[in-house]
Amino acid sequence: MKKTIAMLLALLLVAVMLPVTAMAAEGDVAKIGETGYPTLEAAFAAVTNSTATTITLLKDADVTNIIRIESGKNITLALNGNNVTFTIESKFFRVCNAMFTVTGSGTIKEKNPYFSPIIIKGGPEGSVNYSVVNIKEGVTLEGWAGVMVDQTSGTSNNYGMVLNVENATLKGINDTSGASGTAIYVNGVVADAKISVTNAALTGTGTCMYLAGNAETTINGGSVTGDITGIEIRAGKLVLNNCDVTGGYGDVTAVANGATVSNAALAVSQHTTKKPINVTVNGGSFSGGAAVYEANPQNNSTTDTAKVKINVTGGAFKGVIAKDEDNSTIAITGGIYYSYVHNQEDLAKFVPEGSEIIFDGISDGVQVKPKNTTIVIIQPTEDKPAEDQKNPSTGANDFVGIAAAMAIVSVVGAAAVSRKK
Asked: What are residue 121's DSSP bridge partners?
């Protein structure tokens, strides 16, 4: 009997406690599983090992500290329809030797733009996937930079940084000093980074994507729009697949510091690091004072600029195609060009043998295509009959041979900013 009473009392105690736990959860900002936390900082501090952990935001969160994601941690922040605001200047998510994934919908932003809401730091030479950031569908990042792939000050740990952006929005806005913003910023000291952007909307009040460090960047679809320049690459590799890139429409200029080129959709400007640059454009649209512009504001040597190569296989280009008097190369084998109806010779110098400029029913534009190659089919001799010969006794194959000899087969030719703050 006493045991029964004790069990009933225990159950009653649990029943009384349950409503108290539920009421406490109503004031929490975030949770891990069913455990609530009063601040976002507290939720991140509760993650102490590398076990994949999801932090779910329960309401809008104001953050006043740097949140450090490091030591091999693997954290997903589910915004869950809420927003994170860093209310104090120079506070952000700092990702170093960890994986950080953000899922939507929701916004992470700097209230007083100065750096970025998310900054990625690298590891020692040879590091692979050292610091990984994944920005998923429905997420918006807003700051002086949407994301910074940055140097690790005072060290050479600038390797192994990875950024993946899918169906998200990144906004670079003017900082508190008035300096124009960039959606993705890669510091010039970065030695090894990989960036993948898929069907994202990137905007910047300055150069929308500033790729100064040695990164391999692939952009699939989406749009990149900069008030000054769309994309500037200064080292590394860039592949653009059917992406719409827009820059400013004024006179094209180049200076020797930070983001160097103004009023271009795609700018290629070798850094003082003198690393190779390889750009491939596979479709999309490019609009600006210059659609594609190569510059050498650092006056790098001809040996160094020979490592700068730009290959254009297709796309629609509104604006000039131009390069500095250096050893860089621009090879155009496809695409539609709207500024060269009356001055084809300026475009022709970038069209290699094996491709040609043609009018193809495009109003106020010309097209570059691989040249057609004609192949003459030679009939087999009598002592070496064709293997697929039909009706030899009727002579019907004679008519087949004549028709084949008259055919023409078209074959596609194998033409082939350092941040001051």
From this structure: 96
